[in-house]
Amino acid sequence: AVLLLAAVGGWLFWKNNQAEQAAAGSEQLAAILTDIGAGKTGTDVEQRLDTLAREGNGSLSGAARLTRAAVALPKSDRATAIAQYRQVMEDGDVPPTVRDTATIRLTQLEFDSLQPQQVIDRLAPLAVKESAWYGSAGELTALAMLKANRRGEAAALLNGIAASKDVPASLRARAEQLAASLSIPAAPAAR
User: Fold this and answer.
1) Cβ–Cβ under 8 Å, residues 140 and 133
2) Across the chain, what does the average pLDDT equal?
């Protein structure tokens, strides 16, 4: 009984400690985001984000890295942004929704340097109607298919995006326009 109580007590202490660390990390991230909103994106913010990325748990670490990448891009620091997105995409401790965000952003940044099939393969799990990323991943996949001269497959995907009510209106309209500009009839955008 004593061992059981000690084990339960230890587990409760550990859970409480984890919750306190998560709360402190969330407060740090909120303060950093406030600074970014106020236009402070200098070295101090970058260092604080890097520390949070190293020391935070999966969600917090992923959010810090995504933010670090977003801070790097306006400074034309594509290498840092790409590295941050890649780290998030490959980190199994980061929740899938955060990894998926990094996958989309990384693919957008690397699109011109990737082979079309690399784009298609990377985005395959996200470019399906059941995915929350269907519009964004589908659009990038269709562009890669066009680059690979797979017009019929691209048209089918663009038709699906244009017809989906789960995709933002701007993406539906863009899919419809892209198909029309290629003389590929698309389904009218869902209204």
Assistant:
1) no
2) 86
